[in-house]
C-alpha cells in the first residue's frame, strides 16, 4: 500500500473532516453536558440501561430462508441450534414482493429463481410448515413481510398459525418489518401499491397491534436499505426519523391509539452497520438521542419506556467482496464490533459469501460464531457504552445528530418522507453518493483489500455460491393446486370479497386479512385485490 | 457522424429490485457514448424481443439469481441473434461464472472496475 | 440486389429483424436512406400516425403503455417510436421509455423502438420520418411517435402525425409552455394527465381559453387521464379515433399529408446534401481544403466553389 498516495485530509462517511486527534474542546457546546451523562438518562445516547449487555446481551438474529417452507424451517432450526436467539423467516421474493402466486406469468418466466432468497409461502398452510416446531413463545420471531404490500399477509399468516397452536395473540413477542426504504428506495419492485396506500397499511398494522398484540413490534422502520443504496450515516438517520414521523403523524391524525403506544411500537428500528466503525457506533448513539429528542419536542412524550429506542442491526452486505471471500469474516467481525460498541439490541452479520449468493450453512454458522466470540471472549458485554466520554465519539455523535436533523428538515420541507420518495429526491441523493464512491474506487483514492489492491490470494479454500434446492417451484405449484381443490371455496370467496371492500374503505384491513388467511385465501388473490383497488406506484427512477 | 453509434441493451433477469449496480454501469456506458436501452426486470421473452426490435450491438445482463434463468435468457438471445455479444454482471458465483463463460458470455462480478466494463463494451461492439 | 434491397424485401415480407436493421440504418442517415425511401415508397400511406408530445415528466410513456391495449384491440397491432435525449457531452443516451411500456406482455403485435436524439436536431425529425415510413410500409397500421419535450424539434416530429396528442399536467406552467411552443395550434387532442392532482380544472379552463383564440373548428377535445391507473385512457383512444374519422371524412387529411410530403421532400434534399458535405469535409481531401482555407492560401468563396464542384461530380 503506497503511503505517498494518502489523501491529505480524512473524512467520515457523512462528510465530516476528521481531525488527527480530538480533545474536550472539540465537543460541541450543546452536547458537552449530555456527554457527561449516564446510561438510562435522557436522551439515552449512552444507552437505555446501566447494566446493558450484562443482563441482556444483544440477540443473534440472522436473516434466513430459501426453497420450500420445510427447507427454511430446517435452516432456522440449524441456526437456533447453533446459537442464534431469534429467527427471521424470509419469504421468496418473486412471489412475496409482488404478491403473486407461482402461476403468475412473471413468476413462471423465472421459475428457476423461485425459492432463491426465501421460502415460497402462498397461504397459511405454507406458513404453518415454515413455523413447525419453532419456539414462537420463547424466541423473538421475525415474520418476514419486508415489502410493504406483503406485510399484512405475512403478519396475519404468522399470527393465525400461532393462534392455531394455542398461543394468545396478546402474548406473542416478535416483529414485523414492512420496510419503506426497502420497498420504495433500495429495492424498487416491478409493481407496488402507491406510497399512500403503503402508509395506510402500516398505520393499520400499528393500530391492530396496539389493540391486540402489545408485545409485537408492528413495523420496523429501517435504515439498512437507505444506507446500502447510498445514503451516508447522517442521511440514514435523517431519513429514518422522517419515516417515523409519517407513521406517528398518521397515528395522531387517526386518534385510535394513544400516541405513546404508537411511539412504543415504532421504537423498534433497524440500522445498517458499516465498516467505518467509530462513525457507526456514534450513529447508534446519535439515533437514541434523536429519538428521545423527537418524541419530546414533536409529540410531548418523555416516558423512558417509550423513548427507549431498540435497535436491530445488520452489517453492510455491500461491503462484502466477491474476491477473497474469507476476508469478509474479518469485515463482518469489525462491523459487528462497531454495532455492539454502539449498544444495539440485536444483530445479524452478513455471510462471508454475501457477494456470491445467500449464505451457505457454514457462512451462516460463521456469522453466529463471530457474535458468540464477541459475547464470550472479548469482555465487550461487561461495560455499557464503552466509547462514552471519548472526545472523538462524543463529537461525532453530536455532529451526526446535527447533520441528520438538517437532512430531516430538508425532507420535511419538501412535504415529508413519502413526497421525497415519490419525487425521486431520495433516490437522487443516494445515486450521487454512490457515484462518488465508485469514482473514488476507480481512481485509486479509496481501496478495498483484495479488490483494488493486495490481489494475491493464497487461500486453499474454494468458496462457491450456495445452491439451495431446485424443487421449490414445482412443490409450490402442487400446493397451490391442492389448496384450491381442498379449501372451503365459499368461505375463501367471501373472505376475499370482504377484504376487497375493506381495502376500498377507510377501515383497518387487518381483521379482514386475518379472516382471509384463516379461510385459506392465497397470496396472489390478495395481490390481485391490491392491484385492482390501489393501482401501481409511479416509480420515479429508471429501474 | 452517427455511423458508429452503438446501442446496448441492459436487463435484469431476476425479479429483484436492486437498481444501484445497473444504474452505475448504464451511466458509465452513456458517458462513454453508448445508447443504453434499459428494460429493467425483464423476462426471457422481453429480452429477446428487445434485442431484436432495438437492433442492439450488445446485451448486458444483470444476474442475481439461479443461474438457470440467466442461461435460458442467454441461449434464447443467441438463437434469435446469432453472433450478438453478451456480457453479464451481478451476484454470479464461481460455478455460474464458469457456465456463462462456457456459453461465450463475459462475466463481471462485484468489484469489477467500471473502466474494464466500458472497455469491454468497446471491444464487444467492434469499436 | 443490393444489401439494402434485400433487407427491404425481407422487411416487407414480414421479417422483423430486417425491419429492425433498417430502422438502425435510417437513423444513421446518408445515401442508404435514399435507397430505402425509393424502395418503400409504393407501400407507404396506410398507417395512422399518432404523435404524443408534452413537457418532460408529463407521463407520456405511461400513457402510451395504457393506450397500447386499445390500439391493439382496434387495429390489431401497433408500433411505437420513443425518443429520448442524447447527452450533449458524450453523445450517449439512456433510453428509458421502453421499460415503462413493458407492464403488460404485448407479444409480437407490438413493436417498440427507442431512438436517441443524437444531437443532430434537424436530423432527428428526418430519421423519425423514415422510421415511421418503414413501419408504415411493413404494414403496421398505427404508429405512435413519442417525443421528449416541447420545442422546434418536437414540432417537426409532430409534423409526421395525423393525430397530435399533447399531454399536459395540472398546474399553470404546462399550458404556458405549450402555448409558447406552438403546440396549442398543432394539437388535435389534449390530455390532462395526473388529473387526480390539484389544479386539473384550472388547467382545463386555461386550455379552453387558449383554444378559443384559434380559428380551428371544431375545437380539439380535452381528456383527463390518470395514466398510472389507466383511468380516462379509453376515452382518450375514442377521442383520437373521432379526430381521425373527422380528418378522413374531409379533405384535410389529404391536404395535411400533401403538405407533409412537400416538407419531407425539402428536408430530404437538404439532409442528403448536408450529409455529403459533412462526409467530404471529414475526409482527407476535405481536411486539406479546410487547412488551406484556414491558412489563407485560398479564399473562402473559392473553397466553397471547389466543394460544390467536387460534390456535383461525386453525386453523378
Briefly, what is this?
The complex is a heterotrimer of chains A (543), B (127) and C (316). Chain A is mainly alpha-helical and 543 residues long.
Please tag this protein with its features:
heterotrimer, A: 543 residues, TIM Barrel, 10 strands, C: 316 residues, alpha/beta, Rossmann fold, 3 domains
Note down, in words, how this protein is organized:
The complex is a heterotrimer of chains A (543), B (127) and C (316). By secondary structure, chain A is mainly α. Chain A has a single domain (24-48, 61-452, 466-472), classed as Methylmalonyl-CoA mutase (TIM Barrel). Chain A is 51% helix and 6% strand. Chain A has 23 helices and 10 strands. In chain A, helix 3 packs parallel to helix 16 (361-377) and helix 15 (327-341) packs across helix 16. The model of chain A has no long low-confidence stretch (mean pLDDT 94). By secondary structure, chain B is an alpha/beta fold. Chain B has a single domain, classed as Rossmann fold, CATH 3.40.50. Helices cover 44% and strands 22% of the residues of chain B. Chain B has 5 helices and 5 strands; from the N terminus they run βαβαβαβαβα. Chain B has a 5-stranded parallel β-sheet, with helices on both faces. In chain B, helix 3 (67-80) links the parallel strand 3 (58-63) and strand 4. In chain B, helix 2 packs parallel to helix 3. With 316 residues, chain C is α/β, with parallel strands linked by helices. Chain C has a 7-stranded parallel β-sheet, with helices on both faces. Helices cover 57% and strands 13% of the residues of chain C. The model of chain C has no long low-confidence stretch (mean pLDDT 87). Classes of the chains: A mainly alpha (543), B alpha/beta (127), C alpha/beta (316). Chains in contact: A-B, A-C, B-C. At the B-C interface, helix 1, strand 2 and helix 2 of B face helix 2, strand 3, strand 4 and helix 12 of C.
* Global structural class of chain A: mainly alpha
Mean residue pLDDT of chain A: 94
Largest interface, C-beta closer than 8 angstroms, per-chain residues: A-B, 46 and 34 residues
According to CATH, the fold-level topology of chain A is TIM Barrel
Note the total helix count of chain B. Answer: 5
How are the strands of the largest sheet of chain B arranged?
Answer: 2-1-3-4-5
What is the second-level CATH architecture of chain A? Alpha-Beta Barrel
Amino acid at each position: 500500500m503506497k503511503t505517498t498516495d494518502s489523501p491529505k485530509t480524512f473524512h467520515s462517511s457523512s462528510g465530516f473532516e476528521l481531525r488527527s486527534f480530538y480533545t474536550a474542546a472539540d465537543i460541541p457546546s450543546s452536547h458537552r453536558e449530555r456527554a457527561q451523562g449516564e446510561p438510562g438518562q435522557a436522551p439515552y445516547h449512552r444507552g437505555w440501561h446501566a447494566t446493558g449487555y450484562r443482563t441482556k446481551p444483544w440477540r443473534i438474529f440472522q436473516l434466513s430462508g430459501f426453497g420450500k417452507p420445510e427447507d427454511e424451517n430446517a435452516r432456522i432450526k440449524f441456526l437456533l441450534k447453533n446459537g442464534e436467539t431469534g429467527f427471521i423467516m424470509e419469504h421468496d421474493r418473486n412471489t412475496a414482493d409482488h404478491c403473486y402466486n407461482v402461476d403468475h406469468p412473471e413468476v413462471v418466466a423465472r421459475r428457476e429463481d423461485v425459492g432463491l432468497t426465501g421460502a415460497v409461502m402462498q397461504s397459511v398452510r405454507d406458513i404453518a410448515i415454515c413455523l413447525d416446531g419453532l419456539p414462537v413463545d420463547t424466541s423473538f420471531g421475525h415474520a418476514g413481510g419486508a415489502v410493504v404490500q406483503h406485510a399484512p399477509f405475512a403478519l396475519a399468516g404468522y399470527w393465525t398459525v400461532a393462534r392455531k397452536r394455542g398461543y394468545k395473540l396478546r402474548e406473542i413477542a416478535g416483529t414485523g418489518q414492512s420496510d419503506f426504504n426497502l420497498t420504495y428506495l433500495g429495492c424498487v419492485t416491478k409493481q407496488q401499491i402507491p406510497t399512500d396506500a403503503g402508509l395506510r397499511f402500516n398505520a393499520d398494522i400499528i393500530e391492530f397491534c396496539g389493540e391486540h398484540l402489545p408485545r409485537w413490534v408492528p413495523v420496523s422502520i429501517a435504515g439498512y436499505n437507505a444506507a446500502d443504496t447510498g445514503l451516508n450515516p447522517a442521511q440514514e438517520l435523517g431519513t429514518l426519523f422522517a419515516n417515523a414521523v409519517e407513521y406517528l403523524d398518521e397515528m395522531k391524525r387517526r386518534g385510535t391509539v394513544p400516541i405513546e403506544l404508537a411511539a412504543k411500537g415504532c421504537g423498534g428500528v433497524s440500522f445498517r452497520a458499516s465498516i467505518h466503525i467509530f462513525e457507526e457506533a456514534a450513529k447508534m448513539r446519535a439515533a437514541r438521542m434523536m429519538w428521545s429528542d423527537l418524541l419530546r419536542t414533536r409529540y410531548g412524550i418523555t416516558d423512558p419506556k417509550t423513548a427507549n429506542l431498540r435497535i436491530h442491526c445488520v452489517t453492510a452486505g455491500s461491503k462484502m467482496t466477491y474476491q477473497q471471500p474469507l476476508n469478509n469474516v474479518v469485515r463482518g467481525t469489525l462491523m459487528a464490533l462497531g454495532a455492539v460498541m454502539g449498544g444495539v439490541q440485536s444483530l445479524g452479520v452478513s455471510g462471508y459469501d454475501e457477494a456470491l449468493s445467500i449464505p451457505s450453512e457454514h457462512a451462516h454458522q460463521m456469522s453466529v460464531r463471530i457474535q458468540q466470540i464477541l459475547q464470550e471472549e472479548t469482555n465487550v458485554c461487561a461495560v455499557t457504552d464503552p466509547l462514552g466520554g471519548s472526545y472523538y465519539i462524543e463529537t461525532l455523535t453530536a455532529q451526526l445528530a446535527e447533520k441528520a436533523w438538517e437532512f430531516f428538515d430538508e425532507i420535511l420541507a419538501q412535504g415529508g418522507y413519502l413526497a421525497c420518495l415519490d419525487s425521486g429526491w431520495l433516490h437522487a441523493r443516494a445515486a450521487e453518493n454512490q457515484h462518488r464512491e465508485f469514482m473514488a474506487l476507480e481512481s485509486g483514492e479509496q481501496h478495498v483489500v483484495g479488490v483494488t489492491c493486495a490481489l494475491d490470494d493464497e487461500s486453499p479454500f474454494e468458496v462457491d455460491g450456495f445452491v439451495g434446492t431446485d424443487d421449490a417451484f414445482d412443490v409450490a405449484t402442487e400446493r397451490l393446486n391442492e389448496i384450491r381443490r381442498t379449501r372451503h371455496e365459499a368461505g375463501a370467496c367471501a373472505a376475499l370479497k370482504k377484504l376487497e371492500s375493506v381495502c376500498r374503505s377507510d377501515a383497518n384491513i387487518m381483521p379482514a386479512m386475518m379472516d382471509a388467511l384463516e379461510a385459506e385465501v392465497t397470496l396472489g388473490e390478495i395481490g390481485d385485490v391490491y392491484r385492482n383497488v390501489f393501482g401501481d406506484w409511479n416509480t420515479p427512477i429508471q429501474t | 457522424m452517427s455511423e458508429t453509434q452503438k446501442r446496448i441493451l441492459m436487463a435484469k433477469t431476476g425479479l429483484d429490485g436492486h437498481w444501484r449496480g445497473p444504474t452505475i454501469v448504464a451511466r458509465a456506458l452513456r458517458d462513454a457514448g453508448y445508447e443504453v436501452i434499459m428494460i429493467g426486470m425483464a423476462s426471457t421473452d422481453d429480452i429477446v424481443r428487445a434485442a431484436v426490435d432495438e437492433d442492439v450491438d450488445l446485451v448486458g445482463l444483470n444476474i442475481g439469481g439461479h443461474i438457470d434463468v440467466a442461461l435460458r435468457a442467454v441461449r434464447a438471445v443467441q438463437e434469435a441473434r446469432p453472433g450478438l455479444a453478451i456480457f453479464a454482471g451481478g451476484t454470479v458465483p464461481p460455478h455460474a461464472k464458469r457456465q456463462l463463460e462456457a456459453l461465450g458470455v463475459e462475466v463481471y462480478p462485484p468489484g469489477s472496475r467500471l473502466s474494464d466494463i466500458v472497455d469491454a463494451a468497446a471491444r464487444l461492439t467492434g469499436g | 440486389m443490393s444489401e439494402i434491397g434485400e433487407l427491404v424485401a425481407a422487411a416487407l415480407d414480414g421479417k422483423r429483424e430486417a425491419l429492425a436493421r433498417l430502422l438502425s440504418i435510417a437513423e444513421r442517415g446518408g445515401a442508404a436512406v435514399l435507397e430505402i425511401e425509393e424502395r418503400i415508397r409504393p407501400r407507404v400511406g396506410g398507417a395512422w400516425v399518432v404523435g404524443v408530445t408534452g413537457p418532460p415528466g408529463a407521463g407520456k410513456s405511461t400513457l402510451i403503455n395504457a393506450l397500447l391495449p386499445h390500439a391493439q384491440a382496434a387495429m390489431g397491432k401497433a408500433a411505437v417510436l420513443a425518443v429520448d435525449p442524447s447527452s450533449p457531452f458524450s453523445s450517449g443516451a439512456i433510453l428509458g421509455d421502453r421499460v415503462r411500456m413493458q407492464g403488460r406482455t404485448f407479444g409480437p403485435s407490438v413493436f417498440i423502438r427507442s431512438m436517441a436524439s443524437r444531437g443532430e436536431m434537424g436530423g432527428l425529425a428526418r430519421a423519425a420520418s423514415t422510421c415511421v415510413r418503414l413501419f408504415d410500409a411493413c404494414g403496421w397500421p398505427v404508429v405512435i411517435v413519442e417525443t421528449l419535450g416541447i420545442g422546434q424539434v418536437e414540432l417537426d416530429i409532430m409534423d409526421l402525425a395525423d393525430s397530435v396528442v399533447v399531454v399536459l399536467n395540472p398546474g399553470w406552467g404546462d399550458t404556458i409552455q405549450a402555448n409558447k411552443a406552438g403546440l396549442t395550434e398543432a394539437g388535435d387532442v389534449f390530455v390532462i394527465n395526473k388529473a387526480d392532482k390539484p389544479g386539473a380544472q384550472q388547467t382545463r379552463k386555461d386550455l379552453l381559453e387558449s383554444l378559443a383564440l384559434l380559428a380551428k373548428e371544431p375545437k380539439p377535445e380535452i381528456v383527463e387521464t390518470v395514466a398510472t391507473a389507466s383511468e380516462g385512457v379509453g376515452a382518450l383512444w375514442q377521442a383520437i379515433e373521432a379526430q381521425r374519422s373527422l380528418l378522413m371524412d374531409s379533405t384535410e387529411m389529404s391536404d395535411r399529408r400533401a403538405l407533409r410530403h412537400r416538407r419531407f421532400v425539402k428536408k430530404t434534399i437538404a439532409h442528403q446534401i448536408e450529409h455529403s458535405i459533412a462526409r467530404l469535409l471529414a475526409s482527407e481531401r476535405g481536411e486539406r481544403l479546410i487547412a488551406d482555407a484556414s491558412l489563407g492560401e485560398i479564399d473562402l468563396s473559392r473553397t466553397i466553389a471547389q466543394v460544390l464542384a467536387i460534390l456535383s461530380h461525386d453525386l453523378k
